[in-house]
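Our consortium's second objective concerns turning raw sequence data into structural hypotheses that experimental partners can test. To show how far this objective has progressed, the report includes one record in full. It was chosen at random from the queue rather than selected for favorable results. The single chain below, 492 residues long, was entered without modification.
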Amino acid sequence: MFKKVTLLILALLMMFGVMGCNKTTTTTTTTETTTSDSMVSLPDLMGANRETITETLEDLGLTVKYYIDVSKIYESEDEYDKFVRFGQDMVAGTKVELGTEVRVYTTPLHLETKYYNNLSSYDATLQLEESDYLGKEFIADGYGVVTVEKFVDGDTTWFRSGSQSFSVRYLGIDTPESTALYEPWGKTAAKYTEAVLKTAETIVLQSEGTRQDGNGRYLAWVWYRTSAESDFILLNLELVELAYSKNKVAVGSIYTTILTLADWDASMTKRRVWGEIDPNYDYSKEGTQMSIQYLLDNFDDYVGLKVVITGTITRKVGNSVYLQDETGYGVFMYGGFTTSAQLQVGANVTIGALTPTYYNGSPQLSNFSKTNLSVNEATEPIEPVTITYDDFAFNKMGLLVTIENLLITGFNSSKTSIYVKDNNNNTFTVRIDDSTGLNADTLGLTVGVAITVTGPLSYYDYDFDSSNTSYVYDKSNYQLMLTTSGDLIVLV
C-alpha cells in the first residue's frame, strides 16, 4: 500500500514538474516576441525631404517632431528641405519603441510664394489697378508713377516724380542694414530690391496713413510691374514672403492680414532673416588686424568683412569718431546710437569687429560695439597736416588736416554747409555736422569772409555707386569736416 501511495505521489510530482517547465518556456517565448514586435530600427533617411521622412517614420509606427539645422551655409535650392540628422544622439539603425516621437533635423525649407505673385486670386480688392493712380501724383495725391533716382538699401530708395526727387521708406518692412550699419542679409536684400526695380516697366507709390517719418522720408507701398500686360506686384509683400524682411506692418493697415500670413509662412522655413546663415556676411567676433593705411590701400577687399583697427581719436562727431594711427592715415568710425565714455579725443583705442563700408563714396567703419573696444596707453597728440586742394585723394580721407585761406562763397539753407574756394578758384565744402549745434550764423560767418579750417577730410557724392569699378573721385566732392568752433580761424 505504501509503495502504491509513493508511486502515485512521484507521478503527480513529475506531472506538475513538466507542467511547470512548459509554463516557464511559454513565458520566455512570449516576452521575446513582444520585445521584437515593439522595437523598430530607425531607417537611413539621407537625402529625403519632409514629406518622405514623415511617410517613412509613420509607416514604422513612429511620430516625428521637426527641427531646422541652420548651422551651415546652404547655397543651392537642391540643398533645402533635406534630412540632416536624428536628434537625441540617435542614428540610422538605432532601435526605438513603437509610438516614439522621433526628433528630426532638416535643412531650411523651400520658400513657397503664394501671395505677392497671385494677389488678385487671394483678395482682388488689394490689387493695384491703373484706375487707382492714373492722373495722380504721389506727393500731392498719395498715388503716382515714379522713377528710381538712387538705390539706398532694401527698404529705402530715392524716387523722382516730375522734377522732384525724394527719399521713400517702404511701409510694413524693415530689411537688415547695409549702409551705415552692416547686418546679415542686408546687402542681399538691397541687391534684390535694386534688381527688381531696375527691370520694372512701371513703378507706382501708394501712401497710407502718415505721409512722412521723423527723418523727412516719405512712407509708401511700392508697386511695380514687369510689362504693360502684367499685374502689379507689391514689393513690400514680396520682400516679406521671400524672407528678406520680417513683417513690421502697423495694425489697421489694409495689408496687415496678408503681410502677417506671408510673414508666418516665411518664418517656418528659417530662411534668410529667420535664421539662415548669410554666406556673404562675416560673422567673426574680431576680424583681421591691420593698419589704417593698409585698410585704405585695400579697402574694397574688406568691404563687408571684419577688421581690427588701432588708432588715436582725433575728432568726435556725435557718437562717431575719426581715428588716425602712426602710419599717418585716418578713417571715420560710425558709432550710430552706441555711446561710450571711452571714445574721447586723444584716446588711443583698439576696436575689433568693425565692418568697412562706403557712405556716399567716403570709406567708413561700422558695427561698433563697446564690447570690442579697449583703451591703450596714451600716445603723442595727433597734429593736423596742412594740405591744399591738389592733395585731395582717397587715402587722405579721415586724415586730420588744415586748409588755409578759404573764401566763403555761400551756404546751404540750414547754413551747415559752407561753400568755399581757394586761391586758385577750386571749390569744395566745409561741412558742419548737426550734432555740433553749430552753423554759419552761430560762428558769425558771412559770404566774402576768409577762413582757415582744421578738421578730418571726408567725401560726399549723392550719385556714388560702389559697384561701379570705373568710378572716378571728383575733388569738388571732398569735404572738410568742422567739428568744433576751435578749429575755425577767421582771417582779418
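The partners drew two points from this record. The radius of gyration is 35 Å. The chain has a mean pLDDT of 92. Both points have been shared with the crystallography group to help prioritize constructs.
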